[in-house]
């Protein structure tokens, strides 16, 4: 353990940290979406009557996936920390990429391509869609910058 | 007049019966754990605390005042369901009562019990997928058919419903955790996580269907009460399943650490 860690192991730690943080980040963003928009603001509903069967089934699957992603991601990140193999800058990059990635996926695929639900009903959607997807892009860009910085520092 | 008073007394006595049974089970567990400790075999105090916690949660769920609340209010019924079917079984499964029983029984009886655990019927119902079907299927059957309304009028049926929740909930925790208790199945982590995933989704889906379509129907519950109960099922189910997921991951990582300690990697 006192000898310097070989580079492949370090690279493996970085990759693992990145993916775990991305998983937790995507889960957190999904939870924020569900808590803020489904339950507090109730812009799109806990149960969306406009799109019955597929809507609630996909919501249930999303919900389970989001909870498990947070639980597994957080748990394995804690374990990684305890083994002193967490690389913090890769974790931040992964978290932002995960959050932005989910937000953009939700904004483009669920809202627009599948049309499972819209952000809000009975209003002009353009401003909502723009702010939703631009905030997703901002998160992704932050994640990308952090990713490039982490890679630069790793290569020395 | 006399007859009805006597019947009232008998049913009041019967209402305390599950609590008595729980007390006996808890004393039995703690006594057996104490005996293991005195023999120098060791039995974790945490497991004793978890078993006692499970018993306490069950006792709250079947205490006569809660039963009375659950009888006329769907929210009370749902709180009972969460305690009996999800939280108490998790605490009990983590207390490893089967392992303690196997250690406490004389050898011949323990062998017979191992044989029973390995028997085909038990192996089938304790498979994670079967346990999932029993759990989710039981819920769907209860809330989406006239069964719920019927169970409100028959004490016997009501008792069976609770027993089913407890047994199916325990089987599910037992099968998904695959430890610390001795169990007939030790399946891969991925399969067990997958089953947990489906269970979380199904639970959320059933809660939303109840909320949206106002099930169970025909039992005379007002809409707001059903919706409040469905929300309780949704959030309470989340909490219970999150706890189950954390327990599962914790056990899996402990098992991995242990196997790394006992079997040094081959080079």
From TrEMBL, chain A:
<feature type="transmembrane region" description="Helical">
    <location>
        <begin position="130"/>
        <end position="147"/>
    </location>
</feature>
<dbReference type="Pfam" id="PF10002">
    <property type="entry name" value="DUF2243"/>
</dbReference>
<keyword id="KW-0472">Membrane</keyword>
<keyword id="KW-1133">Transmembrane helix</keyword>
<protein>
    <submittedName>
        <fullName>DUF2243 domain-containing protein</fullName>
    </submittedName>
</protein>
<feature type="transmembrane region" description="Helical">
    <location>
        <begin position="90"/>
        <end position="110"/>
    </location>
</feature>
<keyword id="KW-0812">Transmembrane</keyword>
<dbReference type="InterPro" id="IPR018719">
    <property type="entry name" value="DUF2243_membrane"/>
</dbReference>
<feature type="transmembrane region" description="Helical">
    <location>
        <begin position="20"/>
        <end position="41"/>
    </location>
</feature>
<feature type="transmembrane region" description="Helical">
    <location>
        <begin position="61"/>
        <end position="78"/>
    </location>
</feature>
UniProtKB/TrEMBL annotation, chain B:
<keyword id="KW-0472">Membrane</keyword>
<feature type="transmembrane region" description="Helical">
    <location>
        <begin position="232"/>
        <end position="252"/>
    </location>
</feature>
<keyword id="KW-0812">Transmembrane</keyword>
<feature type="transmembrane region" description="Helical">
    <location>
        <begin position="44"/>
        <end position="63"/>
    </location>
</feature>
<dbReference type="Pfam" id="PF09678">
    <property type="entry name" value="Caa3_CtaG"/>
</dbReference>
<feature type="transmembrane region" description="Helical">
    <location>
        <begin position="12"/>
        <end position="32"/>
    </location>
</feature>
<protein>
    <submittedName>
        <fullName>Cytochrome c oxidase assembly protein</fullName>
    </submittedName>
</protein>
<feature type="transmembrane region" description="Helical">
    <location>
        <begin position="191"/>
        <end position="212"/>
    </location>
</feature>
<feature type="transmembrane region" description="Helical">
    <location>
        <begin position="124"/>
        <end position="145"/>
    </location>
</feature>
<keyword id="KW-1133">Transmembrane helix</keyword>
<feature type="transmembrane region" description="Helical">
    <location>
        <begin position="83"/>
        <end position="103"/>
    </location>
</feature>
<dbReference type="InterPro" id="IPR019108">
    <property type="entry name" value="Caa3_assmbl_CtaG-rel"/>
</dbReference>
<keyword id="KW-1003">Cell membrane</keyword>
<feature type="transmembrane region" description="Helical">
    <location>
        <begin position="157"/>
        <end position="179"/>
    </location>
</feature>
């Amino acid at each position: 353990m006192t000898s310097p860690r070989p580079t492949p192991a370090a690279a493996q730690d970085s990759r693992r940290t990145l993916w775990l943080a991305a998983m937790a980040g995507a889960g957190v963003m999904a939870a924020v979406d569900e808590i803020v928009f489904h339950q507090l603001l109730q812009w799109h509903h806990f149960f969306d009557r406009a799109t019955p069967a597929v809507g609630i089934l996909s919501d249930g699957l999303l919900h389970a996936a989001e909870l498990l992603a947070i639980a597994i991601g957080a748990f394995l990140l804690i374990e990684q920390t305890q083994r002193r193999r967490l690389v913090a800058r890769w974790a931040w990059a992964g978290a932002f990429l995960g959050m932005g990635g989910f937000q953009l996926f939700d904004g483009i695929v669920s809202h627009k391509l599948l049309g499972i639900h819209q952000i809000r009903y009975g209003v002009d959607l353009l401003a909502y869609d723009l702010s939703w997807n631009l905030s997703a892009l901002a998160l992704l860009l932050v994640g990308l910058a952090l990713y490039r910085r982490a890679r630069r520092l790793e290569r020395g | 007049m006399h007859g009805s008073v006597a019947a009232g007394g008998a049913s009041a006595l019967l209402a305390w019966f599950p609590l008595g049974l729980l007390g006996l089970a808890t004393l039995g567990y703690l006594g057996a754990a104490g005996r293991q400790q005195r023999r120098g075999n060791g039995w974790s105090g945490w497991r004793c605390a978890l078993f006692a916690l499970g018993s306490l949660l069950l006792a709250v769920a079947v205490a006569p005042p809660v039963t009375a609340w659950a009888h006329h209010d769907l929210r009370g019924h749902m709180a009972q369901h969460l305690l009996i079917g999800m939280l108490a079984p998790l605490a009990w499964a983590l207390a490893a009562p089967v392992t303690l029983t196997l250690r406490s029984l004389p050898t011949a009886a323990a062998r017979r019990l191992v044989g029973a655990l390995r028997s085909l019927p038990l192996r089938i119902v304790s498979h994670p997928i079967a346990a999932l079907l029993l759990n989710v299927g039981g819920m769907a059957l209860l809330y989406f058919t006239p069964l719920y309304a019927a169970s409100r009028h028959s004490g016997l049926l009501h008792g069976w419903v609770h027993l089913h929740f407890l047994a199916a909930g325990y089987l599910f925790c037992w099968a998904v955790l695959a430890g610390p208790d001795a169990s007939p199945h030790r399946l891969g982590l991925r399969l067990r996580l997958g089953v947990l995933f489906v269970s979380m989704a199904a639970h959320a889906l059933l809660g939303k269907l109840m909320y949206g379509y106002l099930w169970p129907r025909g039992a005379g519950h007002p809409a707001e009460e059903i919706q409040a109960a469905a929300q309780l099922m949704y959030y309470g189910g989340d909490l219970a399943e999150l706890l189950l997921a954390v327990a599962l991951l914790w056990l899996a990582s402990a098992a991995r650490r242990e196997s790394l300690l006992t079997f040094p990697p081959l080079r």
